[in-house]
Amino acid sequence: MVGMGWQTTGDVAEFLAAAGEFLWRERARNTVVLTVSEQLRVNPARYAPPANSDGRANRMSRPLFGWWTGRAGAVGGAFLHTPPHPLLLTAVPADVAAGLAPLLAGRPLNGVNAYLDAAGAFGERWRAANPDGQVTEHRRMRLYRLGELTWPDPAPDGAPRVAADSDAQLLTGWFAAFADEVNDLDGGDDQAVAVRDRLSYGGVLLWEAGGRRVAMAGVTRQVAGMIRVGPVYTPPDLRGRGHASAVTAAVSVRAREAGAEEVLLYTDLANPTSNSIYQRIGYRPVEDRVVLSFSI
Length: 296
Hints:
Elements: E1 5-9, H1 12-25, H2 31-42, E2 64-69, E3 75-81, E4 87-89, H3 94-100, E5 111-114, H4 116-129, E6 134-146, E7 159-162, H5 168-182, H6 191-200, E8 204-209, E9 212-219, E10 226-233, H7 243-257, E11 262-268, H8 272-280, E12 283-295
Helix pairs in contact: 1-2, 3-4, 5-6
């Protein structure tokens, strides 16, 4: 259906044909939508839903995309939903966000990631349709863009290297530890799959010191001239030595050398340490978002 309002599709190519120009206009703010869409284009099985008892995939758990067209006929908003991750909304008016909720009835929604007003409006409409449900604020996030990079001073001991297949077991544990530490609303993603995907394009940098792997920083594939840094992780017993700052700076340099025009990362606003680290090495705030969690 073509016209004003929300349109949805399970076809990533159709979604990008309709909403791609809109997403590109604010590519930094739409970095996650663009990145996930590219992941699905390259590897459609990346977000494949688990099979039901009869061996068939649950239709409602398949990735879903959508775009909103205003009265002028131009796309003015978009979303994607890849269960078990929260619904991801671009910038849209609060009433437009609220109007999307009924269209997603029956989907396994565990939350929404959006701007504050839009997230609140969507959450209220979801709550009205689920009288026994609860909507709680899960996280406030800040998007940063790399400006002029400043290396940590003093620099920690050690040096970076690109992670290899032989590091997969360690990285799987670190990815899982990171997800647990930040309390991701991911429903228990298979971190081994995520690690294999990152290793396939050299997407993890390790920092080694004293013969040990002491920290890591991952990056997304380059999409629309952007690379996003994350996750960044140091085991608890090795923190406070500057390794996270150093590996983030190193992976940021590699991203620029790879041709990225925008190097971005998200932080949890409840973690003042990480926000301070990234600003010290040259990252500057772009915008804030909120993640609301839904439960019944």
